[in-house]
């Protein structure tokens, strides 16, 4: 029986996992709801009774508004920069889907959480997951009613990132939890000549198609030279408290339109070539081709 | 009724295990609910019922996580079979027995699982982290196994299932 189970075809194994997840999902939702109510009850006992519910609503609203402000700020800066530098108009339509955390990895071997949004809500694999504070991770496995999210602290997740203050690029990778605890990430492959400082902000670079540009990943905690002496590495503290997540937002990038319009070229100009037009010596890829494969360069995960 | 009780226990155990976070200061150790249920069934039920508990418990654990289906079932059933063999010789209802069995079983589970995951290059856990995780899981098992045992014993008592027939009951098959 075990040999059969261990050698099941991947698709069948996924279907079985989906069935178990879907069956247990309502119980998990009830459980996490009860847990939240218990916490609220404890708060009420501490003298904040009555205000707990209102406070929670305001917190959720605040989170959403903060998220919108960040997104709009980023879009504004992106828009200005693109118009100025590339003379290129790009439109990315993103929508955020709020999701409630209903569970965590049962084995403790991986850094994952489970949320109450799944295939029926239009969630797909490799969609970024964020909070107002920053990047949480990406959607790893999608079931009918829920999905598993691989956290940014998992060693198998790689995010191409940048330190905006110095315009220094690197790759953020989760780090094995130290015996003292505390989730940290490694930022590697930073140019050795770049002077980076403690508390520098690290954001996603937007390379690849998984993570949107400009999402805060964390802050530099420790800087060290790579053993090869060719690069610098940094230990970073994630911007989000990954062990206390209750609500997250899944980024649905539904439409990406690249108009491929070059300022100065009229409406009657011939349509750009399929491989992408050349703008000031830079090849601009049409939106549906940008990023190549699902994970894009330098991004993705190596988990099973 | 016995099957229903087993399914309910496993579902409840899975939900609790997935809801509670990991013990970050001790290598991300998780509370071993499914293992505790298997140990209880190994000490208090027939071999068939124990295999059902271990097999299903492991299956649910693997299905909710990212490990391959069948790995936990194999480990749980192996531990269960061993304990079930010595069912009559062990004082299964004594607290100290439950604590020790929980600790020993969790050592086996963590060692075998980490060995398999490292050999398949699915994790790159350091030796220190492995030791921390081992310690964390042992502590949690020492608390969880007797506690789950008492809760299941209470369920048995309330439903009139398997009471007083702990050692040689032929529950299922």
Architecture overview:
Helix content of chain A is 26%, strand content 32%. Chain A has helices at 2-6, 10-48, 51-86; strands at 90-104, 112-115, 128-131, 134-142, 147-151, 157-163, 168-174, 185-191, 201-204, 216-225, 231-238, 247-258, 278-279, 282-283, 300-301. With 304 residues, chain A is α+β, with helices and mostly antiparallel strands. Residues 255-297 of chain A have low confidence and may be disordered. Chain A has three helices and 15 strands. Chain B has one domain (2-14, 33-159). Chain B has helices spanning 2-19, 33-44, 47-64, 71-85, 95-119, 127-159. Chains A and B meet through α1, α2 and β1 of A and α1, α3, α4 and α6 of B.
Summarize the structure in short.
The complex is a heterodimer of chains A (304) and B (173). Chain A has 304 residues and is α+β, with helices and mostly antiparallel strands.
CATH architecture of the largest domain in chain A: Beta Barrel
Number of strands of chain A: 15
The most extensive contact between chains is: A-B, 46 and 49 residues
> What's the rounded overall pLDDT mean of chain B?
85
Total number of helices of chain A: 3
Structural class of chain A: alpha+beta
User: Which structural category fits the helices and strands of chain B?
Assistant: mainly alpha
- CATH-wise, what's the superfamily of the largest domain in chain A? Rod shape-determining protein MreC, domain 1
Distance between the termini of chain B: 14 Å
């Amino acid at each position: 029986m075990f040999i059969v189970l261990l050698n099941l075809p991947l698709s069948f194994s996924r279907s079985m996992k989906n069935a178990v997840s879907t069956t247990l999902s309502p119980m998990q939702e009830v459980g996490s709801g009860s847990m939240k109510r218990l916490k609220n009850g404890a708060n009420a006992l501490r003298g904040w009774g009555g205000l707990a519910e209102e406070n929670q609503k305001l917190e959720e609203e605040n989170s959403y508004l903060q998220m919108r402000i960040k997104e709009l700020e980023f879009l504004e800066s992106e828009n200005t920069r693109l118009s100025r530098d590339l003379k290129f108009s790009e439109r990315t339509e993103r929508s955020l889907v709020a999701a409630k955390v209903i569970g965590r990895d049962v084995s403790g071997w991986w850094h994952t959480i489970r949320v109450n949004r799944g295939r029926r809500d239009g969630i797909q694999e490799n969609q970024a997951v964020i909070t107002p504070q920053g990047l949480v991770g990406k959607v790893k496995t999608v079931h009918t009613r829920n999905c598993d999210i691989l956290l940014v602290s998992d060693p198998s997740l790689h995010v191409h990132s940048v330190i905006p203050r110095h315009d220094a690029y690197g790759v953020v990778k989760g780090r094995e939890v130290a015996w003292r605890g505390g989730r940290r990430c490694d930022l590697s492959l930073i140019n050795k000549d770049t002077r980076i400082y403690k508390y520098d902000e690290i954001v996603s670079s937007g390379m690849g198609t998984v993570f949107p540009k400009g999402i805060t990943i964390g802050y530099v905690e420790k800087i060290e030279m790579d053993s090869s002496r060719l690069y610098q590495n940094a230990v970073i503290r994630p911007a989000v408290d990954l062990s206390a997540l209750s609500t997250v937002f899944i980024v649905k990038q539904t439409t990406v339109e690249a108009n491929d319009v070059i300022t100065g070229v009229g409406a009657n100009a011939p349509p750009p070539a399929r491989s992408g037009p050349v703008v000031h010596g830079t090849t601009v890829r049409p939106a549906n081709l940008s990023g190549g494969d699902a994970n894009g360069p330098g991004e993705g995960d190596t988990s099973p | 009724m016995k099957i229903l009780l087993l399914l309910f226990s496993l579902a409840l155990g899975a939900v609790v295990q997935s809801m509670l976070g990991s013990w970050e200061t001790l290598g991300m150790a998780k509370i071993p609910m499914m293992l505790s249920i298997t140990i209880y069934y190994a000490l208090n039920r027939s071999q068939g019922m124990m295999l059902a508990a271990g097999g299903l418990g492991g299956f649910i654990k693997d299905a909710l996580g990212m490990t391959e289906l069948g790995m936990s079932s194999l480990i749980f059933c192996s531990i269960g079979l061993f304990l079930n063999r010595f069912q009559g010789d062990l004082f299964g209802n004594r607290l100290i027995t439950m604590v020790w069995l929980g600790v020993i079983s969790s050592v086996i589970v963590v060692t075998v699982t980490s060995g398999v995951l490292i050999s398949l290059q699915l994790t790159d856990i350091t030796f220190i982290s492995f030791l921390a995780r081992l310690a964390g899981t042992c502590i949690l098992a020492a608390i969880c196994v007797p506690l789950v045992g008492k809760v299941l014993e209470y369920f048995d008592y309330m439903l009139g299932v398997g009471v007083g027939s702990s050692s040689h009951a032929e529950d299922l098959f």
